[in-house]
Amino acid sequence: MRTNDDGTTTIGVGLISVGWMGQLHSRAYANLRYAYPELRLRPRLVHAADPVAARAQEAVEVLGYERASADYREVLADPEVDVVSICSPNFLHAEIGIAAARAGKHFWIEKPAGRGEEETRAVAEAAAEAGVVTSIGFNYRHAPAVEQLRELVATGALGRITNVRGRMFADYSADPRGARSWRFVREHAGNGVLGDLMGHLVDLVHYTLGPIAEVTALTSTVYAERPEAQAGAGSHFALVEGGRMEPVENEDYAAMLVRLGGDAVAAGAVGTLEASRVAVGPRASYGIEVYGTEGSALWDFERLNELQLSGGLGAEHQGYARVMAHAGMGDFARFQPGAGTSMGYDDLKVIEAQKFVRAVLGRAARPSNINDALSAAQVTSAAERSAEARSWQACAPVSGTTAALRGV
């Protein structure tokens, strides 16, 4: 990092994997100067890596990186790179995360940080040993309506929290012609929808309510086989007609019963959490419903800029009111002038980037971190063990997370 004559700070950015998420990270860094001008930050896109030559070229010609390589190790060895975004497939997350920590690079990594609890713990230990700042791609927690929900819980506006219901329902694998990409192979993805979607939902619960202490679960694989992905069409959105069928090695659907612990305001509350990648109807219905003795609140990503809020018993107009996101919620005012003009998915990643770089700069910030990733991985790994053993599983507390505390 370099402090310039005008008082701004230049920070060198490295990118590993130039897919959709890598593009999104790059745009998020570039937009920091517009959404958060007080940071006085000038991100410099220095070095990107991708083994696919066309993507490496795109990093330079389209995204604006100064140089590109085929090997991620060249990014980590670059002395002009201060922070690294790790946007590779899941099976490389732990390997690259550990390497980034050992190279002394602060890193922003997409979830899951590892294929289960053990790999994620190894990344956390490496980051702690190196003393690097970390951030995790738990982007849904940054929605202004979710920040408002967290505040309502923490201030007691909903009373004593009794139960929570959450869902992560997507249709990206609902078509049985969907290609058998790496996401369906245990060696490459680890578990299925538990790591891909349920991890997001667990983090939403942890962030708004507090840590999950116990879980019991069941899982289901709806499509036991999928057609082999064609060369260059490894995305889970690709459809294959008449391809050779190969086994799906992880779950399409998962459900959990949970009990919350810790010392947060929702300690002792119970709930149900579901995730599916084969739901027909929902496109990206990622939501959480929180119920308390004095009211309740509901949020759904498909209606990102809304919070459904109900008052308590005896309210004159009891029932739900639609509250539009506005300048008083989270970082909404950084992106839009007033309620009714909507924020989008990309904006949530700008907020995430801002929290990450604030922490790197040593300023007050509370980004999701590798301990949050470990906490979520413990729950999803416990759920996988539970589904196999048909039993309740305990989830040990993880220190250093940003899980809900008493007060916001």
Automatic annotation (TrEMBL):
Domain GFO/IDH/MocA-like oxidoreductase intervals: 147-297
Gene3D superfamilies: Dihydrodipicolinate Reductase, domain 2 (3.30.360.10), NAD(P)-binding Rossmann-like Domain (3.40.50.720)
Keywords per UniProt: NAD, Oxidoreductase
Gfo/Idh/MocA-like oxidoreductase N-terminal domain: residues covered: 12-138
Any GO molecular function: nucleotide binding
Taxonomic superkingdom: Bacteria
Coiled coil (UniProt feature): none
Signal peptide, first to last residue: none
Protein name in the entry: Myo-inositol 2-dehydrogenase
